[in-house]
# Entry
Amino acid sequence: MRVLVIENYRATPLGLVGGALADAGADIDLVRAFDGEGLPAGHDGHDALVILGGDQTALDDDAHPYLPALAGLSRAFGEADKAVLGICLGAQLVARGHGAENILGRPVEFGWHPVEPTPAGRDDPLMAALGDGAPVFHWHSDTFTLPPGAEHLASSDRTAIQAFRLGRAVYGVQFHFEADRALVSQWNAAFAPEIAAHSPDWFDRHPAEAARHGGAADALGAALARRWVALI
# Structure
């Protein structure tokens, strides 16, 4: 399989999703769109699309003029019955591409916090891995309305729509299940000023919270990644 991966910001790798794709023998075409690399015109030549997170909003078209095309590309893949995975900003762009409203500037949701499946999520091929609910890593402030025709799959205390599915295998996932403890530690180093601005006590809390939640979150993230790759 050949998978198109779009990076929207520095230091935002595939994480656990990359491990699942490697285990499946996937070939990855990586486009660093935030760095000026161009998007393909359509879905031809790729079996699936992954859109990763970023610091910008899903409506920041003036600073990142490729965003409308990326939102549209997510729709083109889905209409071709190809698997799509949008994570964090990626989920917001998938939602935009499918007619949802993007909601900007809410309070930051950050750190390991529980996510619970909806009734539809309990029966979903991907989100059934959540069981009755589990801690996952979050880092976002923006959100979105449910796209028309989408299944609402998961929620958290602070964010009503944490995951949705359109059709067979187009997923928007707000939480960072790709971020294992190693990647979170990398983010601590790469984005220390940004984290301190909204969560100044994080660096004191991080070791204990990683020990408490990280192992289960890592295992869940790997399971979610494998389940999505199986849908390609």
Summary: The longest strand covers residues 109-117. The radius of gyration is 16 Å.
